[in-house]
Sequence to fold (363 residues):
Amino acid sequence: MSEKKYVVLAEEFSHDPHYGKTLRGVMRYRRDSVVAILDSKRAGETDDGVPIVGSVDDALRFDPNTALVGVVTQGGHFPGDWQELLKSCVAEGLDLENGLHVRLHDIPGLAELAAKHKVELRDLREPPADVSTVTGENLEVEATIVLTVGSDCAIGKMTATCELDLEARKRGLRSVFVPTGQTGIAIAGWGISVDAVVSDFLAGAAERLVVEGGKRGDLLWVEGQGAILHPVYSGVTVGLMHGSAPHLYVLCHEVGRTVVEGDPTASPAQAAARTGRSDRPEHVRRLGARSRVSDRRSRGGDRAARRRPRPVRGGKTPRFGAQTGALICRRERHAVDLCGSCVPRHGSGADRCGSRHDLRRRR
Fold:
């Protein structure tokens, strides 16, 4: 297979940090594969040394072999006259890669044109046909699994994941970036876009990813999606948490953000940080927090590898709940160090009246 040489299609969005998300991700983490960017509004400019062109014909001067859709849109539909732009790419013999929810094969006439010019149409969001429910293999993965989670969507989870992976590799660790979205797949060349998987099978897709990642390395950085407290996108987050069965979490938060984007409520960062649901109750830890305005992005990568917590064995049914290792009050049957009203009374093993309580560690 020949090496990918991308012309990234970003018509009208190459300047936009949100809608140009895929372009920016590939430019940051797969820069050497990009030979041109297409955006007629900025033709003649450059981006990190990459020429910006106004048409497919202009891009051909830089010898690309693949056109990558470099934008994301609300609802996943192609904006404006993009269907004609895609057909122009195919007519010039370029393979197409697309990360939007709309499939390339659903565009009238495009599949026939691709067959005529012998080019490949690849939908990055197309899940494997045989994905199913969780089998328990995720608990048998020997590697240490780290999942990034966020206090909101579009908060920097993929960036944090990529940066931690890069830092771990610099330190000589057998580190693997596990992609779960279209931009991550374009960067790494493998993965499953979990937001396109039928909800019943989402955790199974995440499990498949960590099983595959475990064959590639000893430290897996799983790209997070959505946010567990977001009223629109929490489902994909929960599926990733259960399916990847992480040993460690990295919480991503943007300093200064006070409300969930699109939902006028208080910032969920504190509550998200306290959410400790895990399929590995004996070993789950919070590795740290990553802030968009902090330069302390890569701390903890080698620390995760040194800990090397072992996965739960024996085929037992996973037990869900708060962070384990928490003190449990036998009388009130709840985690005293995770319940704000209980800590003052039982935190030292005695309530304010001096009564002793039988405290034990959660198993």
In short: The first helix runs from residue 21 to 29. The first strand starts at residue 6 and ends at 9. The radius of gyration is 23 Å. The chain has eleven helices and 15 strands.
